[in-house]
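Ligand-bound model needed. 3,4-dihydroxyphenylalanine.
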Amino acid sequence: MSIDGSGSGLAGAAFSSKTRSTLCAFDVFYFSNMPTTDGSQEKTLAALGVTQPEQLTALFQEIRARFDAEIAAVHDEAAFKKFRDAWLGRKSGVLSGITDNWLKPATPELKRAVGAGLNELRAHADSQIEARRAAIESGADEFAVAKERVDLSLPGVVRAIGSRHLIRQVFQEIEDIFVSIGFSVVEGPEIETPYYNFEALNIPEFHPVRDDMDTFYVEAQSAGGAKTAPGSLLLRTHTSPVQIRTMEKRQPPVRVIVPGKVYRRDNPDATHSFMFHQIEGLAVDTDITFCDFTGTIEYFVKQYFGPGVKTRFRPSYFPFTEPSVEFDVSCIFCGGSGSGANGATCGKCKGAGWIELFGAGMVDPAVYGFVSYDAKKVSGFAFGMGMDRLAMLKYGIDDIQAFFQNDVRFLKQFP
Ligand code: DAH
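Prediction:
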């Protein structure tokens, strides 16, 4: 295989070791780029040193081997055309070169053998090229068909679309009820100062009620690296601080509900979680009475649980309401009778017939002092409900942890 056109690559040709190694290096080049001729057909047999018919055998064998190697690398139409022209092209194809340079000027002793070798080579080339053409065409067809094939019997792709979390759904229900009677929704920060979380709600620093509510104090760091003072920030223990934030910004009449996450140092069990959800409510105006308060709550409870439930309130204590109450609803599992199936004590209300719902009350006038409302002119009520608890009661869920475990088997039940 000559690169410079000087060697024939004839079997038995002698190379110096230096020439040999140079050729080897180019052999690699040859196979990776597949030039379609090594040029031996461009010389006459005399120039190639062929004088005896026997020498032709090796010469044709080598050309045929070259043809076979090259055609094996032809896989697409463009390469096929290039290959076919290089071998069968009238002007400069390899076979034309053999006809012009070997056959035509051949000596009478060689002519027959060259003609026979050429015929054999041509027959081989024609059949191989035809077979390769057919293979490429059918392959291309197959590929095109495969690409365009549409299997209408295949099932469609089912995309898993998530749904709203039950807590979010319950909030939506509660929001709809309150919005329908004139409340709007406001939100506040989950990281609070003790002032909003406690002091402004009439819970001074050493008030015993803080014992139940003390929570996770957090330390924040500014971009410059300065840290907040210890105890100056905390995760809010309830949504009540948003009462203060709202009254600071708005003048009466105020009617808002506040949904959100709250945090307490509670160990997790079936009814406790260090993070849970509340909905705060606040209504302040010039003439709000205790009747407005109980009427509003009763309306909400009946809308949420159904018209059959009864409500009651019991005296209670919160520093920011006076009077304070605890609202109960007649047990939704035993209908308020206190006894379950076959006369046994109802496990949910423990036979009481009532279930504790949430705390509420008339806003303590002391609170108005923190937001510069005139306590002599305004009055109002507030409530704080556990959203998780309301969801558990309505949907019969007995473990609050189910809300936070993200188990798809649970979530899927509330699409
Ligand atoms: N913030 C109270 C708590 O988390 C709940 C509460 C009680 C909120 C009475 C109120 C209220 O607005 O009036 O336990």
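DSSP finds 13 helices and nine strands in the chain.
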